[in-house]
Design goal:
This protein is mainly β and about 375 residues long. The chain has 2 domains: about 10-190, Sandwich (Jelly Rolls), CATH 2.60.120; about 240-365, Porin (Beta Barrel), CATH 2.40.160. Helix content is about 10%, strand content about 50%. The protein is built from 4 helices and 25 strands. The chain has helices at about 1-15, 105-110, 185-190, 240-250, and strands at about 20-25, 30-35, 35-40, 45, 50-55, 60-65, 70, 75-85, 90-105, 115-120, 125, 130-135, 140-145, 150-155, 155-160, 165-170, 180, 250-265, 270-280, 285-295, 300-310, 315-320, 325-335, 340-350, 355-365. The strands form 2 sheets. It has a 17-stranded mixed β-sheet that branches. Strands 18-19-20-21-22-23-24-25 form an 8-stranded antiparallel beta barrel. The longest helix has 15 residues, at about 1-15. The radius of gyration is 24 Å and the shape is elongated. The termini are far apart.
Length: about 375
């Protein structure tokens, strides 16, 4: 009898074993199988109830038997709640407990879309043969659809999200009305989990041209809160760019620092401790390029690429290159111009409604 039970156990296990495989890994990740943790590796087979946890600056990709692809970004937690793929029955239920993810549905999502579900911290996602990109936190999820359609639901209701749209889901609140996502922002969200892409570096300040700059897709009727920053008027010609270059001691200089204060309409105060501001100056061409990264109180990431001008009076201004409206301005100061500080005001807008739904304001401080 004991031998029969062991045999049945082995047969049952084999039915669920090897349902998927880790096909790509950048960085480090942990696999939890039957309560035992081990290092995840490319080629590792996965079973039902397995969990995967990625570490900082890590990405991971899984391909299941039906060709469903799940990609995870850094600090993500993924679990296989259910997976059946045979001649009699198909079903896939996954859980994204936190982090960045991308899901490309395979055969199950096409032949039985009602049996394919992804559960996040604040919602459940149903598919209709699609590609889903998202960021999950305990307080709020951002869920976008880049192909096909998805239905995002929680206890408060459901929203149909079509290709090129996103919704935001907070605990015990109805998912927000789907809004069109700027292509650049969608690509940025995708890069957080896609193992084939890397984080966008600061643009080469010596090769930046108008041709390289991405035009903001949002064309608002109300331009007052999203208008571009006009260059500062030179009221005092203290220096020329050549003078600044001489004082700095280099034709180019890189400044790095943080957002010291700020807030967003959707998410409250900006977390200055986790922020990262990088600015690259070329005093020969009078160009400044850089990147402002930060989170708000709901742990939503913002990544704004900027480009602008620096002038002989040691002031500079920039505008967003990454799909946001607005820009910022600042001034070089301190001994040997070691500081580059200023403020910014960006917006996110609904193209269809010509309406701003998120305003992002703050101040930054950087140094060489």
């Amino acid at each position: 009898m004991k031998n029969i039970l062991i045999l049945l156990s082995l047969i049952t296990s084999s039915l669920f074993a090897n349902i998927g495989e880790i096909t790509a890994l950048r960085g480090k990740a942990t696999l939890v199988h039957d309560g035992v943790s081990s290092d995840a590796k490319v080629g590792t087979s996965l079973d039902v109830h397995d969990e995967l946890k990625t570490q900082t600056k890590s990405k991971l990709q899984i391909v299941f038997k039906d060709k469903t692809v799940i990609s995870l970004g850094q600090k993500s937690h993924f679990k296989i709640d259910e997976y059946i793929y045979n001649d009699k029955k198909v079903s896939a239920k996954f859980a994204i407990k936190k982090g960045f993810f991308k899901s490309i549905t395979g055969r199950i999502g096409k032949i039985a879309p009602k049996r394919f579900k992804i559960k996040t911290a604040n919602a459940t996602i149903g598919v209709r043969g699609t590609t889903i990109i998202g960021e999950v936190t305990t307080k709020r999820d951002i869920i976008a659809c880049s192909r096909g359609e998805i239905v995002v639901s929680n206890s408060q209701g459901s929203r149909l999200v079509t290709a090129g749209e996103r919704t935001i889901v907070q605990s015990m609140k109805m998912p927000t009305t789907p809004q069109k996502v700027n292509r650049v922002i969608l690509n940025q969200l995708n890069s957080k989990s896609d193992t084939t892409t890397q984080e966008a570096p600061i643009p080469n300040i010596e090769s930046s041209t108008k041709k390289d700059e991405v035009k903001n897709d949002v064309d608002l009727k109300d331009q007052k809160s999203a208008k571009k920053f006009e260059p500062w008027v030179d009221t005092k010609k203290r220096d020329t760019l050549e003078d600044i270059e001489r004082v700095v001691g280099s034709k180019t200089a890189t400044y790095r620092g943080k957002v010291v204060e700020g807030s967003t309409t959707l998410g409250g105060k900006i977390d200055k401790e986790s922020s990262d501001v990088r600015l690259g100056f070329d005093f020969g061409t009078g160009r400044v390029n850089g990147d402002l990264k930060f989170k708000d109180e709901t742990n939503i990431d913002y990544d704004v690429e900027v480009s602008g001008k620096v002038r002989g009076d040691a002031t500079f201004d920039f505008n967003s290159k990454s799909g946001y409206g607005g820009g910022g301005k600042g001034e070089l100061s301190g001994e040997k111009f070691k500081k580059a500080n200023g403020d910014f005001s960006f917006v996110e807008a609904d193209e269809k409604a010509k309406k701003i739904f998120n305003k992002i304001d703050g101040k930054f401080e950087t140094s060489r």
